[in-house]
Design brief:
Radius of gyration: 30 Å
Number of helices: 6
Helix content: 55-70%
Distance between the termini: 72 Å
Low-confidence stretches: none
Mean pLDDT: 76
Shape: elongated
Number of strands: 0
Order of helices and strands: HHHHHH
Number of domains: 2
Length: 147
């Protein structure tokens, strides 16, 4: 008897040595309760669901990419809605200070930026995006000052 999925080479199931039929139940129980057997069965079940190892990696990458696309789509939709609102209300888009690094201060910007900051206080996606913009802008300023 052999267990093809078993990783441990010490077992008689993988090495192919004869197993005494008198103690076969004990040997099978030890094999089935081992972590190697559990990991092998899990891998075989995942493989049978997905097809192959490459598809396991590709599916996780595709899922991650789809999440990124959806997040960026939501950010863009929020910014478009804010731009439409300021246009319909005939509000000024720009203010006195439009730099990204000053985005953490509400009130110094035009209507568009102040609405973006206000909405970002209530939505995590837009809040994360605004925080990333602030950090990127600060890094960019530090690089320019070093030159």
């Amino acid at each position: 008897m052999t267990c093809v999925g078993k990783e441990s080479r010490e077992s008689s199931f993988i090495s192919g040595h004869e197993v005494s039929y008198k103690h076969i139940n004990k040997a099978v129980g030890i094999n089935e309760n081992s972590k190697y057997h559990h990991n092998s069965v899990t891998a075989v079940l995942q493989l049978s669901k997905q097809g192959d190892i490459e598809s396991l990696f590709n599916n996780s990458q595709v899922t991650y990419r789809e999440k990124q696309i959806e997040t960026r789509r939501q950010i863009l939709q929020s910014l478009i809605d804010i731009a439409l609102l300021t246009g319909i209300q005939r509000l000024a888009y720009r203010g006195k200070e439009e730099a990204d690094y000053s985005l953490n201060q509400i009130g110094k910007h035009g209507s568009f930026m102040d609405l973006v900051l206000l909405i970002s206080e209530y939505g995590m996606i837009l809040k994360t995006y605004v925080e990333q913009c602030i950090e990127y802008s600060k890094k960019k300023i530090m690089k320019e000052r070093k030159k």
